[in-house]
UniProtKB/TrEMBL annotation:
One of its GO terms (molecular function) is DNA binding. It comes from the Bacteria. It comes from Chryseobacterium piscicola. Residues 17-158 form the Ferritin/DPS domain. The lineage of its organism: Bacteria, Pseudomonadati, Bacteroidota, Flavobacteriia, Flavobacteriales. This is DNA starvation/stationary phase protection protein.
Amino acid sequence: MKVQIGITDEHRQLVADELVKILADENVLYVKTKNAHWNVEGPDFYEKHKFFESQVGLLDEVIDRVAERIRSIGHYAPASLKSYLSLTHLTEQTREKNNSKGFITELLADHDSLIIILREHIHSFGNRFHDLGTADFITAVMETHEKMAWFLRSHLKN
């Protein structure tokens, strides 16, 4: 059935093309956070293990919402690790030690990078592609990442 939601097919395609990249970033960040949850070591193990677990839960919710947004505008969400790795702008693990500071520093850089990308999309989704729903949706996703980044950043304060 044809999707008729007041956005041209071309604009829906362009929005979906960007949303699948965001979905890929979210999934890579999820796996990196899950890695931190599973593999963190050190005297603060239990505290950070629980902290990373809470961040994993937030990312799981974001991933589901992004995939559902892609579907709601009439496109399919990719669901393979291969596709995520080909679409993401993030890199996999870069640190050498499994300590909390290393994990937090790397995850914070990823969140900050994603926040910048999301912020850039808000304007284009709304003004260029006439999809105010996705612009609003991405604003909420960005705010989630801003809060997660704040929590990560707070752990690095002495």
